[in-house]
């Protein structure tokens, strides 16, 4: 068995629309913090010089959104559902997140949208159509720009025909190496201004208001995996009542 990491890091040095704040508590600071907490909460006095080198443990505090780094979007993220109460990330079935995967190479598209026709062409090319509950992943090439503003403006997303076609096949987790499963905000707004067509406004996300499914966004390293014949494990962190959860996505190859 071979494991390939498909996850983007959470990195406070990366350019992000919502910047990540990462504060590190050193082991020496951790000792003083521990002593203070023990005094405040349990009434215990503990001299830090008792510890080897006066050190206890380090700690990290981060401020970030659940959509930073590789993460899974839950149905509640998409808005008010027409099919009933939209489930949060801690309520989703684990069986969805450890499944065979199919990778769709759309790097030639550039910035724009991918629809049903292109998906079918790619499945024909690789000789593999997704089965129900398979994880389908768009390989847009966007990861080349991770950590820069371009990562958020240069990639291809799914249009309404594409996401509904995959859901008709029984797919329940759709992934991408881009910032969003929809086209970039800049592309969507420009297209809407030119056409006046509301159907171009975040169709991949808004489809989740009508049909329950999850997205896994900001994957990485897709060039290292084949188009099919492997599994993906991408269990989301169990954040109560949240619309998304971070995931350590891994490809599992026999």
Automatic annotation (TrEMBL):
Keyword set includes S-adenosyl-L-methionine: no
A Pfam cross-reference name: Cyclase
Example GO BP: L-tryptophan catabolic process to kynurenine
Keyword annotations of the record: Hydrolase
A molecular-function term among this protein's GO annotations: arylformamidase activity
Record-linked Gene3D superfamilies: Putative cyclase (3.50.30.50)
Its EC number(s): 3.5.-.-
InterPro entries found in the cross-reference section: KFase/CYL, KFase_sf
Protein name according to UniProt: Cyclase family protein
Native source species: Streptantibioticus silvisoli
Upper taxonomic lineage: Bacteria, Bacillati, Actinomycetota, Actinomycetes, Kitasatosporales
């Amino acid at each position: 068995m071979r494991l390939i990491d498909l996850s983007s890091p959470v990195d406070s040095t990366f350019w992000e629309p919502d910047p990540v704040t990462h504060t590190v508590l050193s082991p020496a600071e951790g000792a003083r913090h521990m002593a203070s907490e023990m005094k405040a909460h349990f009434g215990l006095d503990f001299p830090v010089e008792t510890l080897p080198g006066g050190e206890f443990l380090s700690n990290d505090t981060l401020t970030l959104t659940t959509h930073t780094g590789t993460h899974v979007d839950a149905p509640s993220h998409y808005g008010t559902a027409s099919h009933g109460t939209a489930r949060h990330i801690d309520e989703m079935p684990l069986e969805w997140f450890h499944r065979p995967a199919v990778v769709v190479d759309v790097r030639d598209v550039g910035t724009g949208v991918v629809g049903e026709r292109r998906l079918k062409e790619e499945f024909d090319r690789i000789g593999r159509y997704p089965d129900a509950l398979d994880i389908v992943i768009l390989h847009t090439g966007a990861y080349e720009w991770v950590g820069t503003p371009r990562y958020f403006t240069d990639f291809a997303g799914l249009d309404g025909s594409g996401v509904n076609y995959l859901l008709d096949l029984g797919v329940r987790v759709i992934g991408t190496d881009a910032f969003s499963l929809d086209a970039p905000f800049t592309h969507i707004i420009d297209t809407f201004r030119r056409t006046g067509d509301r159907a171009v406004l975040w169709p991949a996300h808004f489809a989740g208001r009508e049909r329950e499914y999850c997205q896994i966004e900001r994957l990485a390293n897709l060039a290292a995996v084949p188009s099919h014949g492997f599994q993906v494990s991408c269990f989301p962190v169990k954040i109560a009542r949240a619309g998304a959860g971070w995931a350590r996505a891994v490809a599992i190859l026999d």
